[in-house]
Amino acid sequence: MMYTVGLKILKNKLSEYVRLAAAGETIVITDRGRVVAEIVSPRRHQHETFVERGVREGWLTPATDQSSRPPPRKPIPGLTLEQLLADLDRDREDRW
Q1: Is the torsion defined by CA of 47, 51, 57, 61 positive or negative?
Q2: Homologous superfamily of 1-61
Q3: How far apart, in Å, do the first and last CA atoms of the chain sit?
Q4: Which of 47, 56, 78, 96 is the most buried (most CB within 10 A)?
Q5: Whole-number pLDDT of residue 44
Q6: CB of 31 within 8 A of CB of 7?
Q7: What is the rounded distance in angstroms from the CA atom of residue 39 to the CA atom of residue 29?
């Protein structure tokens, strides 16, 4: 689990948040609504995967759909598959 705490509250309850981090929780520290730091257990990062790191650092958002089905189709109104493929072929002509 991840906890988010403002700097002012963190100062008042530092030992509580350090205990949570030592137990494996991630503490995200904010200052005026902006993330400025994290407190994590030193053991936590040793076996962390690339995806876990991305989620922790905030540059990767985990999927919310756990169904393993492909996303729904979103056809482009007014265009057929043949028109789209022809357009793609025209775009690729200059690469040869």
Answers
A1: negative
A2: YefM-like domain (3.40.1620.10)
A3: 51
A4: 56
A5: 60
A6: yes
A7: 8
